[in-house]
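Why HxlR family transcriptional regulator? Reviewers of the renewal asked for a concrete example.
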Amino acid sequence: MNIPKPGLPVRGSKTGQPIMALLDLLGRSWAMGIIWHLYNGPSTFRGLQDYCESISPNTLNTRIKELRDCNLIKRTMEGYALTEYGEELFELLQPMGPWARNRWTESFKTEDPNSL
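Here is what the prediction returned.
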């Protein structure tokens, strides 16, 4: 399994720039969804599977392993939870939600529909 880590080649960066390694990890299916869900508190594998709806058990296992190996989530007595780094990352990403929903979405409303 090729887990994106700073200093190693990743999608978009042969030198493994830290931001590119992070974006590679977060760009994987359901990675951000898992982080988003765990910000509300610990969750079991089954809880994550229900939250992610269409995710296969294999993909969920892979994503959990990647996020654990990258120090963003951990296993607790209650299930999986964000680490300190995972919480910090969520707080950095969270403002992007309203921005994307409002400001960025607005930009598409002003485009000429014939130019798409």
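The domain at 18-104 is CATH 1.10.10.10 (Arc Repressor Mutant, subunit A). This is the kind of structural detail the renewal will allow us to pursue systematically.
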